[in-house]
Amino acid sequence: MIIAIDGPAASGKGTIARRLAAHFGLPHLDTGLLYRGVGRIMLDRGFPLDNVEIATAIAENLDIADLAGEALRTREAGEAASVVAAHAPVRQALLDLQRAFAAQTGGAVLDGRDIGTVIAPDAPAKLFVTASPEERARRRFRELVGRGELADEEAFYAAVLADIAKRDARDSGRSSAPLIIAPDALVLDTTTLGIEEAFAAALAAVESARR
Ligand SMILES: Nc1ncnc2c1ncn2[C@@H]1O[C@H](COP(=O)(O)OP(=O)(O)OP(=O)(O)O)[C@@H](O)[C@H]1O
Ligand SMILES: Nc1ccn([C@@H]2O[C@H](COP(=O)(O)O)[C@@H](O)[C@H]2O)c(=O)n1
């Protein structure tokens, strides 16, 4: 069974995806890491993020095995990912890899922005995980502070909230595979749910889609 999970930044979709994958014994792909990988390489090599040709060449040669490490999880990498993800040729270069991952025998769990709409539109189980921007910023703030990315606390929360608003607007407003709710997705608003409650609601939705 393919489980497709989409949603905006820091909504908790990755946490739910990992838990569902462990529960059902399925492989999991965090597709945001692909775009973060391209963005990170562009930053590290000093290429302008709007250079579509270079970003596409990097996407074509991306090795999924290299997509680990803290450097991919920074605010800077998230922002760069969102810029390169708006280039249609970059998305095209990453399409086959994601579709092949989804098509594995037995199924897979993928999370991102366009899984239920573009990568696996026929997935039997689709979730759109969301939460208010303020709650998502609080979650991301706690996560980044835990990783040591902290300046002045109040200013840092405001900066994280601004990042989230900017990324939401760019991801939803782009012309290529924008972040939208697939018509057949179940919307799970986790604003007032803890991780265990959110996972239980997601599991119930997937179990119901399997029947
Ligand atoms: N329901 C929840 N309640 C509180 N914290 C949560 C909840 N779900 C996830 N978190 C925490 O919020 C942070 C962001 O979660 P997660 O990485 O799963 O979000 P995401 O949507 O996958 O983010 P991204 O868009 O960056 O991939 C993590 O630190 C996670 O532990
Ligand atoms: N399927 C996807 C996944 C991600 N993106 C873009 O990458 C950025 C980073 O993603 P995270 O999930 O790690 O936050 C995100 O803001 C999107 O721009 C995408 O376009 N499609």
From TrEMBL:
It is found in: Cytoplasm. GO terms for biological process: pyrimidine nucleotide metabolic process. Keywords: ATP-binding, Cytoplasm, Kinase, Nucleotide-binding, Transferase. The keyword Cytoplasm applies. SUPFAM superfamilies: P-loop containing nucleoside triphosphate hydrolases. Pfam families: Cytidylate_kin. This is Cytidylate kinase. It comes from Phreatobacter oligotrophus. The lineage of its organism: Bacteria, Pseudomonadati, Pseudomonadota, Alphaproteobacteria, Hyphomicrobiales.
